[in-house]
Amino acid sequence: MVQKRALITGITGQDGSYLAEFLLSKNYKVFGLTRRTSTPNYERIKHIEDKINLIPGDLLDQQSLTSALSYSMPDEVYNLAAQSFVATSWSQPVLTGEFTALGVTRMLEAIRQIKPEAKFYQASSSEMFGKVKETPQHEKTPFHPRSPYGVAKVYGYWITINYRESYGLFTVNGILFNHESPRRGLEFVTRKITHGVARIFLRLSNYIELGNLDAKRDWGFAGDYVQAMWMMLQQKKPDDYVIATGENHSVFEFAQEAFEVVGIKNWKKYVKVSKELFRPAEVDFLIGDSAKARKVLGWYPKVTFKELVKMMVEADIDLLKKNSR
Ligand code: NAP
Ligand code: GDD
């Protein structure tokens, strides 16, 4: 059988690393776009670095995307690169728009010019639902983004559909709800909590500083979610899918569960709430309905909320112990 080729933007990120592993297990030839940094940031992919092909490029640079397409000639393109931290999108709204919105058009243009038969996955987000219009949220729920990031993702969503309708490209949107893992960036609330709990458990720190504890999210495991990305590109027709667990929890509950893993009961004394960490506009409540993905793709999440929190706390304890040796 001919070996399939995939190009992943954002391969150094959380999802990119899990997707690369998954595609390697399916015998793909995997190419990843990486941008220039003054120090290496291959931490998440160092265990597979010799099995993947890294191509220098940036979503801001059209020529580099065209070259990456010409070099890799992929059957499938997964556009995971973005400025993905919602809080930063208020302090860097223009850059967020350049990466997270216009970057999608640049990638689609490169495909249209170099390899129009390539299938394209766009990393769309439940942040697009923002101030939610209905509960749970599904593929037909109207959007009301609440941050420059959410607005940029709505642009990315529609330009992906536009290239499908204008040029007949095979383009899909995966509307993924929050998904986490031990490889999650330290600035996101789940990892901030699990890393903080691990530090408190190991007596390296006395507290965690958090913002809005009432916000609720539908949290799944990133390893489960990247499989859905691939499944979407194996369908006969391009379409858009919500990927979620269908269960949500507050930040408060996540923290409680994380402290529970290390047996700390009086956990509230270790959490400080800072108004500085509240957002100018909050997304209060997200919960997804992934019935379409379950029916059409046969996808369902395997890791439960409890298992996810435990996995992340234990991984952070191991990491801190390893770093102290
Ligand atoms: P992440 O860990 O922040 O990774 C983002 C990746 O994008 C990194 O590899 C980063 O490279 C790369 N990148 C950023 N700007 C770039 C640019 N200008 N050119 C090239 N590469 C650039 O994000 P993630 O959690 O894996 O999420 C993957 C995608 O899914 C993102 O588009 C995110 O918005 C979307 N999404 C995530 C979730 C979630 O819960 N995780 C949910 C819905 C949608 P560096 O390593 O060089 O910074
Ligand atoms: N980051 C952070 N830090 N969030 C906090 C904190 C804190 O100290 N305290 C409370 N929160 C609340 C935020 O206000 C938000 O309501 C919630 O925790 C989740 O924040 P994040 O973990 O930063 O994730 P997010 O939901 O804003 O965005 C993530 O999920 C989106 C999908 O819905 C990112 O991965 C996005 O890229 C993704 O699109």
From TrEMBL:
Keyword NADP: yes
The UniProt record lists the keyword Cell wall biogenesis/degradation: no
MF (Gene Ontology): GDP-mannose 4,6-dehydratase activity; NADP+ binding
Top enzyme category: lyase
Spans through the membrane: none
InterPro entries membership: GDP_Man_deHydtase, NAD(P)-bd_dom, NAD(P)-bd_dom_sf
Cofactor(s) it depends on: NADP(+)
Domain of life where this protein originates: Bacteria
Biological processes per GO annotation: 'de novo' GDP-L-fucose biosynthetic process
EC code: 4.2.1.47
Catalysed transformations (reactions): GDP-alpha-D-mannose = GDP-4-dehydro-alpha-D-rhamnose + H2O
Ranges of residues in domain NAD(P)-binding: 7-312
Keywords: Lyase, NADP
Annotated family: Belongs to the NAD(P)-dependent epimerase/dehydratase family. GDP-mannose 4,6-dehydratase subfamily.
Described function: Catalyzes the conversion of GDP-D-mannose to GDP-4-dehydro-6-deoxy-D-mannose.
Protein name: GDP-mannose 4,6-dehydratase
Species whose genome carries this gene: Candidatus Curtissbacteria bacterium RIFCSPHIGHO2_12_FULL_41_17
Gene behind this protein: gmd
